[in-house]
Amino acid sequence: MDLLYTDCVLYKVYTKEPNIEKADELISRIANIHIDFLSRANITEGKDVKNRVKIYYKKLKEDLKAQVDELGREIQNLD
Fold this sequence. Notes:
79 residues
């Protein structure tokens, strides 16, 4: 998430005519997604059932990858 945030800030600073409004929206979304994934990763319920934990974190990892890919595409299309 830090790299996505940095990409948005660099876009705003180093692009000749950046779309500041869209970049700010993306920065806000990145922060909200980051908070969401941190809270999901810190769940301790059900840790006694090893298979359930494995499935939960596998899904979490897949969701994170999908979000990062989507945000990366949106950053590329900011112009």
